[in-house]
Amino acid sequence: MVSIPSDDDPDGNTAGPHSSRRTLLMASAGALGVGVAASVLGPVAVFLGHPLRHDTTEGEGDFIAAGPPSMFGGDKPVKVDLYADRVDAWNRVLNVKVGSAWVLSQGGQLVALSTVCPHLGCGIDYDAAASKFYCACHKSWFSMDGAVESGPSPRGMDALEVKAEEQLVSIRFQRFKMGTKTQEPA
Ligand code: FES
């Protein structure tokens, strides 16, 4: 009978110097593979996990430039659209509209009221003839100071923080829960 020698040893012995070298080579190749995989997958895992570890939405909640003081302070409210850069998960969108506000002067102080209706979120307009704000969706009316006068809105218009500096008026835009009697951050 003819015996076939194994790859390990011409004499067919599996344990010996050749076998040890092969085991060592395989172990080295395995370790190298794990190292390469870790170096590639590590940064990918960090990248994909970023939105889970950080608040990745920006824009809302910051003071946003509304315009110079000369734009405001007349006897009519002025509507301003507020733009900011927005980061949402992995995307950065520049100069996106985050909301709008009505700005008016009350007792010499600038006041900003959100245009978002507290009832169901439609846009609030200004009726110059009536000198009132109104929401056309379900016919809520608001007085000049934002108090609800009639309609289904459960509260008055939401007040926003205003920072009036010498050269610039800024507004901190926020969204609030709809359908509640009190103004609560959304
Ligand atoms: S959404 Fe404004 S009254 Fe309903």
Note the main attributes of this structure.
Rieske Iron-sulfur Protein, six-stranded antiparallel beta sheet, about 190 residues, alpha+beta, 2 domains, about 20% helix, binds FE2/S2 (inorganic) cluster
Short description:
With 186 residues, the chain is α+β, with helices and mostly antiparallel strands.
Give a written overview of the molecule:
This protein is α+β, with helices and mostly antiparallel strands. It has two domains: 17-54; 57-172, 3-layer Sandwich (Rieske Iron-sulfur Protein), CATH 2.102.10.10. The protein contains one helix and ten strands, in the order αββββββββββ. The protein has one helix spanning 17-53; strands at residues 63-67, 78-88, 91-106, 109-114, 125-127, 132-135, 140-142, 148-150, 159-164, 169-172. A six-stranded antiparallel beta sheet has the order 1-10-9-4-3-2, with no helix packed on it. The chain has a four-stranded antiparallel beta sheet with strand order 5-6-7-8, with no helix packed on it. A hairpin with a 2-residue loop joins strand 3 and strand 4.
List the helices and strands and how they pair.
Blueprint: H1 17-53, E1 63-67, E2 78-88, E3 91-106, E4 109-114, E5 125-127, E6 132-135, E7 140-142, E8 148-150, E9 159-164, E10 169-172
Antiparallel strand pairs: 1-10, 2-3, 3-4, 4-9, 5-6, 6-7, 7-8, 9-10
Rg, nearest Å: 33 Å
Overall geometric form? elongated
Number of domains: 2
Give the amount of beta strand, in percent: 25-35%
CATH fold category name of the largest domain: Rieske Iron-sulfur Protein
Overall mean confidence score, pLDDT: 83
Low-confidence stretches: 4-9
CATH architecture assignment name of the largest domain: 3-layer Sandwich
Helix content: 10-25%
Please count the beta strands (DSSP E, at least 2 residues each).
Answer: 10
Bound molecules: FE2/S2 (inorganic) cluster
- The strand line-up of the biggest sheet is 1-10-9-4-3-2
